[in-house]
Design goal:
- With 133 residues, the chain is of the alpha+beta class.
- 23% of the residues lie in helices and 28% in strands.
- A 6-stranded mixed sheet has the order 1-2-3-6-4-5, with helices on one face.
- Helix 1 runs parallel beside helix 2.
Length: 133
Amino acid sequence: MSPAPSLEAVVTAAAPAPVGPYNQAVKAAGLLFCSGQIALDPATGAMVGSGDVEAETRQVLANLQAVLAAAGCSPRQVVRTTVFLADLADFAKVNALYAEVFGAGVSPARACVQVAALPKGGRVEIDCIAVLS
């Protein structure tokens, strides 16, 4: 049996603290696995946007970028994302803001799915996997 991989938790106050038994991200085997981010303000823990999917998406992307930065990564190192939407009718609005962060050069592989509900009544959640430098 091969040894377990070395794991390192990534923690930053610049993104919301986890609301359960998980880490903001984990480094393993040259990769960074970022937990899904919703539109929580890291300073207050309150949801941002009051149901405005564009405001939520901006906060989600800011939170995700804060986690990436804490791990020494940038959006250019992201190879895979998953976008969870409470309503696929929001796809175009979310996609336009997503493209501002991930649209240049080789964009990450991605899945986008509609879900029945998201934590805290959110309308969008995004997670990602990045390659560490």
